[in-house]
Amino acid sequence: MAKRTETIAEMLAHGSVVSWNMRNTPTRAHGKYTIRLELTFLDGTTQRREYGGYSDLKSAVKKRSELLTELTEHTYLPFRVKTGLFLDYWLKEHMAKRKVRPISYQTFSSYQSAIRCHIIPKIGNLYLDAVTTETIVTLINPKSPSIAKTVQSILETSFRFAVKMHLLNRNVAKLATDCIRKQEKHRKKQEADKLAREEPDTDRIDWTKRHYALTAEQTGQMLAVAKAKYPSLFIALLLACVTGCRISELLAIRYRDVDYQKKVIYLKAQLGRPVDASALKKGEIASCRIPTKSINGVRTIPVPDFVLDEILASRIRWEQTETSMHLNTDDVAVWHQENGRPYTRYGYAKPFKKLKQELDMPEDFHWHDLRHTYATLMAKHDVNIRELATVLGHAKAEFTMQMYVVSEQPVYELLSPYEQMLESVFPYTVQCPMPGKQREILDPGAYINVLDRCIRECHSQRVPCAKRGNTV
């Protein structure tokens, strides 16, 4: 009866090799030389290994010496796994099921597609230790930039895990991606030098990339129109513009996450679909509270007074509805539907598209560009970049500057009919749920300078604005 092949999970469960026993000389059998050894693993189990087929004693002795060196230096690989099987295990068993911050459903789907369509057809049948730097460079180079970036991320992260689990000695994917980045940097430098010779204008804007970020005036105009014509979208737009949070994080903000005394919002989760949705009912799959994108996503964001007043006004309107009698208001999302349930991440699509058309904004202006708008205006007003990165949930300030702060350029022209609308929409008042407190929520034209005010109120004195992990 053939011996059953162990699964990857069973291989990894053994742990590292802690001791070994090898014969002093190769064994001769059937005219060939064989090296036999017995391995003892961390979990106490033992396994035998044979390396045979050597026709002469000299070759066998050389192989034995190599094995002894590897065992002594802890570079010996007790198991050989094919790349395709390993990537399937890494994605489904490690990344999707890890206890600390498993990957999101969107990332899981993207990785699964890239592995199936772009990696396995090329190197799926190769053993992990047979994959070289040159193999990976050849695999990645012909791909489009977006696919290449995903494939690089998959291979670099998965091979790092393989090294940790003693399936590889070094991360050849990291070496390959470093090589590709150097090639790309050199290529871009050559293109830039060529363009500089052909067109020496230093103020030229590279329109091959999207650089969308609204000005404070454009943001104010957008919020004013949304308040007047798309009220269900308004609170979401306002929070996006003055907090810079991701759409999935915005959906998860509940009334209990707003601290009116400290003037902050606590971000502790995001709304989305878990990788394993088998136990969920239809209609609940896309609205689950799941961990933030990274550990840096758990943060505290400062908000100005007029935004807190808008949230209070929203809460008052909700508590006056009949539906609110059956739900705990503290657990209701700030941006909610009429039935009290939070919107899904695509609930803004139709009204946001109409708003863009009304303001003659570019068709490819995305909701995520509001996050770029927040970052750009903050940086423009000399907000500490380290603080800004923390508010946005980034680990490094360099990433914030490189990927989120964009150069100034027009997104759309201000339309004269809406200039009068600003004056007609504001001001208005609301009775705040605090004894003896009634005040004007917004003065005329406040939305035109909405982010400027946010900067003044929250960052002018370098308030400790975003201590990670704070809870109410």
Mean pLDDT: 78
Specify the overall morphology. Answer: elongated
Low-confidence stretches: 201-208, 409-472
Based on CA atoms alone, the radius of gyration comes out at 29 Å
Distance between the termini: 62 Å
As a percent range, the share of helical residues equals 40-55%
Q: What structural category do the secondary elements indicate?
A: alpha+beta
Oligomeric state of the chains present here = single chain
* Extended strand count: 11
Strand content: 5-15%
Q: Major sheet: size, sense and barrel closure? A: 4 strands, antiparallel
Q: SSE string, helix = H, strand = E?
A: HEEEEHHHHHHHHHEEEEEHHHHHHEEH
Q: What's the number of helices? A: 17
